[in-house]
TrEMBL record:
Protein known as: DUF3817 domain-containing protein
Main location: membrane
Intracellular or extracellular location(s): Cell membrane
Keywords: Cell membrane, Membrane, Transmembrane, Transmembrane helix
Residue ranges occupied by any DUF3817 domain in the UniProt entry: 9-95
Membrane among keywords: yes
TM ranges: 39-60, 72-89
Membrane topology: Multi-pass membrane protein
InterPro entries: DUF3817_TM (IPR023845)
Transferase among keywords: no
Amino acid sequence: MDIKTASALRRLRLVSAPEAVSFLLLIICSVLKRTTEFNAVPVMGMVHGVLFVLYVLFWLDAWNRTKWDVKTAALYFILSVLPTGGFFADRKLKREAEAAVIASRARREGVVSA
């Protein structure tokens, strides 16, 4: 894995968890708006919107650099629209990045996998 691909995956990981947290907070704010006088939906909506747009941009960049198949790319996109999906995307991306680093080191050291 080259450095630009690793950076693309890292950026996607960095935004996935905050995007999930903002989604959950937006849901909480929506409930509070309807049950109390507290209305933080406009602010939380904007925060979540910015994080979601960043997630989609970083997802597109990662898809382009990693050459994921459509099924994998669709999975990461679907995880972005589920309230806790960003947490699962973060874990899955972490495992994928670690596997890529191990494979890269093995190739560099000349180790052939069976």
